[in-house]
Design goal:
Blueprint lengths: L12 H4 L1 H20 L9 H24 L16 H10 L4 H5 L12 H28 L6 H4 L6 H11 L3 H27 L1
Helix pairs in contact: 2-9, 3-4, 3-6, 3-9, 6-8, 6-9
């Protein structure tokens, strides 16, 4: 079974709008590298290994969501970034696997630069939204390998569709400059994710 991509969703992000297509083209190469690291999920055969994978993912997901929600720029387009967040589902899975709230708070996390503009915020949001659709395929892998394992995080598709995000991006990125800035922010976010997952995957 191939590694899922954000284009696996029935509504392809690249077809949603010119802006989304441009961002997807910018991150495609980095996304392929990240997908290779996520092959670790296909090698999981026990709950301890699965817990380690989720703990590693949390080290990026949680600070990324915090940075997204802390950005003050969303008010300009009337968007609540909490609709993209899946931290509660991830924490629920970790709790089901035996990690307490204290344990979760002590897990290593990566550092992300503060969001400095609306294009930066959109660029950070783009990979997080894309990951929700890849997660639906990952849930299938986990369910097959570990029947009964908690998969709330991978099953959680959030509250924002590609069409909704495309409309947001069109409003937030009206010209070449802002679209370029958002695309670069998306690439930077993906590169940070690749570096982070490579570190915990090879640890």
């Amino acid at each position: 079974m191939p590694v899922p991509t954000i284009a696996d969703h029935p509504v392809s992000p690249a077809a949603s709008s010119h802006v989304i297509g441009r961002m997807w083209a910018a991150v495609a190469a980095v996304h392929a590298e990240e997908a290779a690291h996520l092959q670790a999920l296909r090698q999981v055969r026990d709950l301890g290994a699965y817990r380690a994978v989720l703990a590693g993912l949390s080290g990026f997901q949680l600070p990324a969501e915090e940075a997204l929600c802390a950005a003050p720029h969303w008010a300009a387009v009337g968007f609540d970034p909490a609709a993209l967040c899946r931290a509660a589902s991830l924490r629920a899975d970790l709790a089901a696997l035996g990690l307490s709230a204290t344990d979760c708070a002590e897990l290593p996390t990566c550092s992300l630069a503060p969001v400095t503009s609306l294009p930066h915020a959109v660029g950070l949001a783009f990979p997080l939204l894309g990951a929700t659709f890849g997660g639906l395929r990952m849930r299938e892998w986990v369910a097959a390998a570990l029947p009964g394992a908690p998969t709330r995080f991978f099953a959680d598709a959030g509250q924002v569709s590609w069409r909704q995000f495309a409309a947001l991006a069109e409003a937030a990125l009206p010209d070449d400059t802002t679209q370029s800035q958002a695309s670069q922010a998306a690439v930077d976010t993906m590169n940070r994710l690749v570096a982070w997952t490579a570190a915990w995957h090879t640890a």
